[in-house]
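Pipeline run #58 for the internal structure catalog. This entry was flagged by the ingest filter as a single-chain record with no existing model, so it goes straight to prediction. Upstream metadata was stripped on purpose; only the residue string is passed forward. Reviewer on rotation: M.T. Logging verbosity set to normal.
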Amino acid sequence: MTKFLRYFEELICAVFLVVMISLVIANVLLRYLFDYSIYWAEEVATICFVWCVFVGASATYKHKMDLGIDFLIRKTPAKVEALIRLLVTLMLLVLNGYIFYMAIVFTKVAWVKPTAVLGVSSAVMNSALIVGFGLITFHTLRFLYRDGSTYFGQRAH
């Protein structure tokens, strides 16, 4: 896997974070120094923030940096631990897949609703949910393959 694909979510987050921070700083400086404000800066910064949150959640999940308490699971025999991890991953696949589906429905409904300042479709912001939960669902499928391979005694790739 190339570094670009390996850090795809992180790169997207970095771009949105740089745009968001730059807009906010520029708007503050313009307001303070010249008594002028970029009227659309807050809305664009909000859109960038939403994208950072949901794509960043995917990056966190991909690297297994999300919060997990597995103290009791690690005390069980290896085969039981592997089964519990497999079942939890299956539950996460169902949950994340459902949220991904609902994100698509939510974005379709919001397609015709314009944003307050720019008047663009609200789907610009809401599609961050589709991308974020789509990637999370994809990573859950990868984890399911790995956990299934571990449980059924095959070598995980």
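catalog note: The mean pLDDT is 91.
catalog note: Residues 92 and 120 are 33 Å apart (CA to CA).
status: ready for reviewer M.T.
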